[in-house]
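Methods — Computational structure assignment.
A single polypeptide chain was analysed. Its primary sequence is given first, followed by the predicted tertiary structure written as structure tokens.
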Amino acid sequence: MKFNFVIIAVAAIVPLFMGFIWYNPKVFGSSWMKECNFTLETMEKPNPIVFLYCYILSYLMAFILGTFVIHQFGFFSILMNDPNLMVEGSELNLYAADFMEKYGNNFRTFKHGALHGTLIGMLLVLPIFGTNAIFEKRSFKYVMINAGYWIVSLALMGGILCQFA
């Protein structure tokens, strides 16, 4: 099983597009600015390099997210330490090829990937944001705006990765 780096790159764009929508003042941007004590006057126009850094971080996230939303990676992770896996015609190589022939497309849908992305957002990202918010004395609303953004972004990323990678 190989990574599809083009699809990973496409999925990594999702948080940028979602950010433009989610944090728009007509959606959650005004509420987010209020919770952060920002105003339009105090907000600086972001340097374009910030978006490059965000994309690189999103790419890293998309790269690892694929291993969570595509179950077939689990099969290969068990076998990857055996050098015969990659030896053409070896018993293990033939077994893996047969397995992938039979089961390689199981659970490879957008819907399934979106489910796993949502679960990762709710069960990993939300607790991290919530824990930080408790110590930073941030509001529940602040947590929900930011965690909601990542839950939706991860759902879309997971769907793209599971369906197309």
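Note: The mean pLDDT is 94.
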